[in-house]
Amino acid sequence: MNSVELESVSLWYGNVVAVNDVSMSLGPGVTGLLGPNGAGKTTVLHMMAGFLPPSRGTVTIGGATAWRNPEIYRKVGIVVEREAVPSFLTGYEFVLASARLQKLDDPVGAAQRAITLVEMNDAAGRKMDTYSKGMRQRTRVAAALVHEPDVLLLDEPFNGMDPRQRMHMMDLLHTMGEAGRTVLFSSHILEEVEQVSGTVQVIVAGRLAASGDFRTIRRLMTHRPHVFAIRSNDDRRLAVALLAEHSVAGVDVAATGLEVRASDYGAFTRALPKIAIREGVRVSQLRPSDESLESVFSYLVAQ
Amino acid sequence: MNMTIIQLTFRSLLGRKRALLLIPMPFILIGLTLIGRIAHPDATDWQQPIIIGLGFAVIVPVLSLIIGSSVIGSEIDDGTIVHILTKPLPRSEIVISKLLVAAGATGLVNGVMMFICGWLINGARMAIGLAAGGLVASICYCALFLALSVVSRRPVLIGLVYILLWEGLLTNLLTGTRSLSIAQFGVTIAARIGDQSYFVPTLSAAVAVIMSVVFVVVSTFIAIDRLRSLTMAGETS
Amino acid sequence: MMAGINAPNGAIHDIGYQRYRGERLGRSYIRKSLYAHGLRTAFGFGRSGKAKIFPWFVVGVLLLVAIIMVVIRSQTGLSPTTYVGFTSSTSLLPLLFLATSGPELVSRDLRSKVLPLYFSRPLGRSDYAFAKLAALISAAWLILAVPLTVMFAGAAFSLPAHKIWHEFTQYLQGLVGAAILAIVYSVVALLIASLLNRRMVAAAAIVAVFLVTSTVGNAISVLVGGDGDRIGRLLGPQPLVQALNQWLLLGDPKDFGNWGWIFTAVSAALVAACVALLSLRYRKVSA
């Protein structure tokens, strides 16, 4: 079993509520834990990793409680945000030690496979205090993967990686997700989350603001007008006709085409073809221009 | 109990600059004993301030403090403990492995130092007695300071207060508390095995041994229990 | 003010930023501030509750001892210790205080690598070191001076008027003895702390150095006959200060004879050497 379940989890320190009644269920695939700094992402991750007990609610991995239960580490791999590694070890020794502590049958083989997976073969023989930040990060990921865990938790894993390393890591996470593992990574950088996973859990101020596919979330945000970019062979004529339509909240005419704000997504998408045919305008491009994660995110944060 | 942890802890111990602090101290004790041997062959005058005053009261505890608090304390401090805690290892295995390294290293250094001094004073029996006392004291101190480093974020300061105020001052003044002073255990064992004409033991051998075991067992239990609940502090600590 | 500058593809906007044209306080202000800040840090002010535990624990114990002395004296009319003796017999406590406060003053700056921030200001290298040293000495002296004052106040109330002057001179001697201890101990402690960037290791190192040197000195005193006793006292800050105070203030010169001058000279040399080393230590500061 490799699902991570949080049920009505809250955590408070004195008067400060860090996590407020969060419930989520993570299954196989990659999920992004998204939120501004200080929103509680790391706290939620730490609770899943068994580092913190929830003040209320339950945190279970594959049915077993995470807190005070070292056995869960057989199927969970964790990469924390804090970079500290024993600097006197070489990369290879570090991953090997991880394999040994996991009580694997073939620690040497597992360590080598993990190191190859993160492309650290060349530098594995050097001491870790000579590594760059990205190299250290990758080695820590290798150590977390060495026992082929069902669940992988990563806290801000792309910190300090250059674009090439980042792409590689994204591929890696994607592959793991496709293979049926449950991968959760936290980030406050929207592009990262957008590129790796469609599924997000958005945490804002300790509360779960939204979860699921971010495009679906966008559509659920009915209060905010959807913005479409339209190009046609007669923009102005189309614009005039659209303004008469009551699902249209506004139209901007620009050199690059029309920008239409629609208050009712469904009604607008049904109405547009009819209007175009009636006016004899040929629409060459219709693109939702704010279905990015950023717009979803800004909307949720602003709530 | 866990070879990997033992190896890792041992390597990390060797690599630290703190090791430099430790090298001069045993040599100073041996040197002084040597001087004493040459100047006053009859040791009854001077064994007290040197072997007990410097050896058992200062060098043995300070060495144990520096090593005992760093085997787990420094990893908690810099955050690398997370790599050990996120493994399916029973916490008792972790604590006992680290305790073995700390007690082994300190016991070895203190034991050899005391053995040599004992030999210089009065031959084999004294050597064995002092070495045994030094070893037992080292093990007790290491267990205590290891537990302190799991329980508190400033184990060295608390350890210093223990050494200076509790063992240095109070247990000398209030004789009833002598059974709670590790230094007394060490001295007692040294005296009972060695030659009692040199050191007058303050406790019975039974009390010393029993209390040593109690100290070690209780400290280790506390360390194991608290390690289970160790919460990861954030970046700002 | 500066008007906004416009160029074809960019513009600098005038958001009202102004250069500071007022008075700039000089080096002495910086020194005074560092001193005041150091003094506050030594007692844990301005930091969390945990930082206050150790210094105030020491203060509490010292005050307690002083109060006990006052009570004993008022009951029995005899004082178990003189003012100078008080300093000597409780010297473990100032040591503990210095072992925790010294590293608070300098080791923290080393650990968080803020020294380049300090020294890129109009602050001399030695200014930093001496301001911190002055703060530590003041703190160490204060934790002894206040209990001594309590003892004097307690005595003054129960003594007949003609004896008060004598008592007062004793009290002043006690203050001088405390100052000597504060100076010698603080210099050594701060030097050790400035070499280590972890507070706990520095604390252990300070205590280790003081304890080992004093027990070694003690051992030499016992082992080597004749002048060995005197030589033994030279070997560590603790026995040295004790001997110096004894000779200088407790007024039994025939006990030490000419050695008294040697104690003084060695103490002064130790202080001077440590101060020089301290200022040298901060000559080179890595980022």
Mean pLDDT of chain C: 84
Q: Helical stretch count of chain A?
A: 10
Question: Quick one: biggest sheet of chain C?
Answer: 2 strands, antiparallel
Look at the structure and give the mean pLDDT of chain A.
Answer: 86
Number of domains of chain A: 2
Give the overall shape of chain A, derived from the CA principal axes: elongated
Instruction: Please describe the biggest sheet of chain A, giving its number of strands, its sense, and whether it closes into a barrel.
Output: 6 strands, mixed
Task: Say which CATH homologous superfamily of the largest domain in chain A is assigned.
Answer: P-loop containing nucleotide triphosphate hydrolases
* Strands side by side in the biggest sheet of chain C: 1-2
Helicity level of chain C: over 70%
| Overall radius of gyration of chain A | 24 Å
Top-tier CATH class of the largest domain in chain A: Alpha Beta
Specify the oligomeric state: heterotrimer
Structural class of chain A: alpha/beta
Distance between the termini of chain C: 37 Å
User: Which percent band covers the strand fraction of chain C?
Assistant: under 5%
Outline the structure in words.
The complex is a heterotrimer of chains A (303), B (237) and C (287). In chain A, 35% of the residues lie in helices and 29% in strands. Chain A is α/β, with parallel strands linked by helices and 303 residues long. In chain A, the strands form 3 sheets. Chain A has a 6-stranded mixed sheet, sandwiched between helices. In chain A, a hairpin with a 2-residue loop joins strand 9 (199-204) and strand 10. In chain A, helix 2 packs across helix 3 and helix 2 (91-101) packs parallel to helix 4. The model of chain A has no long low-confidence stretch (mean pLDDT 86). The relative contact order of chain B is 0.13. Chain B contains 9 helices and no strands. The model of chain B has no long low-confidence stretch (mean pLDDT 84). With 237 residues, chain B is mainly α. Chain B is globular. Chain C has one domain. Chain C contains 12 helices and 2 strands. In chain C, helix 1 crosses helix 6 (125-158), helix 3 (83-89) runs parallel beside helix 7 and helix 4 (92-111) packs parallel to helix 7 (161-193). The two termini of chain C are 37 Å apart. Classes of the chains: A alpha/beta (303), B mainly alpha (237), C mainly alpha (287). Chains in contact: A-B, B-C. Chain B binds chain C through residues 18, 21, 25, 28, 32, 35-36, 39-40, 45-46, 49-50, 53-54, 57-59, 62, 65-66, 69, 73, 154-157, 159-161, 163-165, 168-169, and chain C through 50, 54, 92, 95-96, 99-100, 200-201, 203-205, 207-208, 211-212, 215-216, 218-220, 222-225.
